[in-house]
Amino acid sequence: MIDDIGSGALVDFARFGFTGEPVARTSIADGADLVLFSGDKLLGGPQAGIIAGKKEWIGRIEKDPLMRAFRLDKMTLAALETTLRLYLNEERALREVPVCSGCSARPWTSCTAVRTPWPSSRVVSTACPLKCARTKLSSAAGR
């Protein structure tokens, strides 16, 4: 069985109020032979597609001649390895991977943490990554 979980959660985001996001480890524990997910989005690494699962099936994929077209370059592979190493200690990943730290932050400490330039360079949006009601607009001069 192949399970395409999409965004690539390696930690369970339900504890932060984000329910329904599949976790790679759970898919494998539930019997998936292969789990497909993104290396960027929730994982927080470089843009890449990840295939995890049983050695037999990974080996078959690696032997396919088309696999050559899907190889990662060395820089992407190094960035992905660095990101994955953070997940060896889940608490460290929750602190150091931006998407994890944003999701695990308390709203009153994160609402002013994200400042995104608006299309006009004169206006900025201070938005809470948890999408709470504390989003405000201000002029760049009046920050």
Q: Mind explaining what this structure looks like?
A:
This protein has 143 residues and is α+β, with helices and mostly antiparallel strands. Helices cover 32% and strands 20% of the residues. The strands form 2 sheets. It has a 3-stranded mixed β-sheet with strand order 1-2-3. The protein has a 3-stranded antiparallel β-sheet with strand order 4-5-6, with no helix packed on it. The radius of gyration is 19 Å and the shape is globular. It starts with a strand and ends with a strand.
Task: List key phrases describing it.
alpha+beta, 143 residues, three-stranded antiparallel sheet
Describe the SSE topology.
Elements: E1 2-6, H1 24-29, E2 34-38, E3 49-53, H2 55-63, H3 74-86, H4 90-96, H5 98-104, H6 107-110, E4 114-117, E5 123-127, E6 136-139
Parallel strand pairs: 1-2
Antiparallel strand pairs: 2-3, 4-5, 5-6
Structure summarized in a few sentences:
By secondary structure, the protein is an alpha+beta fold. Helix content is 32%, strand content 20%. The protein has helices at residues 24-29, 55-63, 74-86, 90-96, 98-104, 107-110; strands at 2-6, 34-38, 49-53, 114-117, 123-127, 136-139.
**Tally of helical runs:** 6
Q: Over the alpha carbons, how many angstroms does the gyration radius reach? A: 19 Å
Task: Using the alpha-carbon principal axes, give the shape.
Answer: globular
- Overall average residue pLDDT: 78
Q: Taking strands numbered 1, 2, ... along the chain, how are they ordered across the largest sheet?
A: 1-2-3
The secondary-structure element order is: EHEEHHHHHEEE
The share of residues in extended strands comes to: 15-25%
Q: Using DSSP, what is the number of strands?
A: 6
Helix content: 25-40%
The largest pleated sheet is described as: 3 strands, mixed
Stretches with pLDDT under 50, minimum 5 residues: 108-143
Distance between the termini: 53 Å
Instruction: Return the structural class.
Output: alpha+beta
